[in-house]
Amino acid sequence: MTDGLPEMTSLERTALYKSLGNPLRRRILDYLGRHGEANSTVLARELGESSGTTSYHLRKLAEQRLIEEIPEKSGGRERWWRALPFRHTTPDPAAMAPEEYAAAAELAQLKIEFDSALYRRAHQEYRGPEGWAQVQRHGSWMTREELLAFMREYHVLLERYTHAREEAPDGARPVLMRFYAVPEPVGEWNSEPTGP
Question: For the chain, how many helices (H) and strands (E)?
């Protein structure tokens, strides 16, 4: 689900996953996330591409509501863009059409590679419990309902402490956060049953 937008169709999700898996579009979104705004000329210079290429990809990202034009800065042929807030939860893979599943799996592989590097970097940059880089690992027993309730509260907590780029207080930095919850396999652990 995306914030404030209707539920996406399988075709729309497939297009989204392919778009997010495109290396240049990912770099454009990353640039806009870090710098707030850009036009095709700025992106071409910064990313080493032609302005025609960046312009094409900007239009495609806008069609998917990942970015929007900044009307007050745009004029004539010069169009300025900014990233839009975005959140998406991938549906159950069993409910996906084959093409959607393939696109989601390819995007997931890219994310795994990026997140693995991020995890290593967090360990390398860790400077104690008061530093910018934080690493936490926990294990717990939960019911499925408790885990889902935890996830809902986790999202509320993120909303409470997150700022839009243009509203961030002095000293704020972009922070990349990841959360995973994976139950242990059902079976036996230390000769004791762990599930039905």
Answer: 6, 5
Residue 51 · residue 84 · CB < 8 Å = no
What are 179's two structure tokens? Answer: 């959360």
- Contact (Cβ atoms closer than 8 angstroms) between residue 35 and residue 48: no
* pLDDT tens, residue by residue, 14-51: 999 999 999 999 999 999 988 989 999 999 999 999 99
Q: Which residues of the chain have pLDDT under 70?
A: 1-6, 187-196
Measured between alpha carbons, how far is 97 from 82 in angstroms, rounded to an integer?
Answer: 32
CB 43 within 8 A of CB 49: yes
Residues 95-111 as b/e (b if ≥16 CB within 10 A, e otherwise) read ebeeebbebbeebeeee
CB pairs under 8 A, 24+ apart, for 31-40?
32/67, 32/81, 32/82, 32/83, 33/83, 33/165, 33/174, 34/174, 36/82, 36/165, 36/166, 37/70, 37/73, 37/80, 37/81, 37/82, 38/80, 38/81, 39/78, 39/79, 39/80, 39/81, 40/79
The answer to whether the beta carbons of residues 67 and 60 sit under 8 Å apart is no
